[in-house]
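Sharing a chain and its predicted structure for anyone who wants a worked example. Both blocks are below, sequence first, tokens second.
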Amino acid sequence: MRIGQGIDVHAFGPGDHVVLGGVRIAHTQGVVAHSDGDVVIHALCDAILGALALGSAAKYAGRNASRMFLRHCVEMMQQHGCALGNADISVVCERPKIAPHAAAMREHLAADLNCGVGQIGIKATTSEKLGFTGRGEGIAAFAVVLLVEAHA
């Protein structure tokens, strides 16, 4: 078994939506990023790369489609003989509300990770109006993954 953790943060900026877990969510702002700014997938990719001892996703900066990057991480997992045991992801923001979109996010992620929806946990919390997320200046995500030996 291998365990990895990942964190990603983006500031809010101009726009009318955010992308989280591959799901486009209407919002009063977008995110400032070189890619689609999907903090959920970026944190998840960092956790996978960490579990594989391959470093940070930062070296892949600039990839526009986060879901394509996640699929690339799945290929790396397979090359290392691993499969996802489970992933637990926490999103920290005051808005947008995550709960109405969590099921769709889990479905997208499970499809990209070649696993069951029950292997993906997504939850959200606020920071009680404290810090940059509490002031509505940005969004953060934290991910933990357990990778297991893949069965042939």
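Comments welcome. The domain at 2-149 is CATH 3.30.1330.50 (60s Ribosomal Protein L30; Chain: A;).
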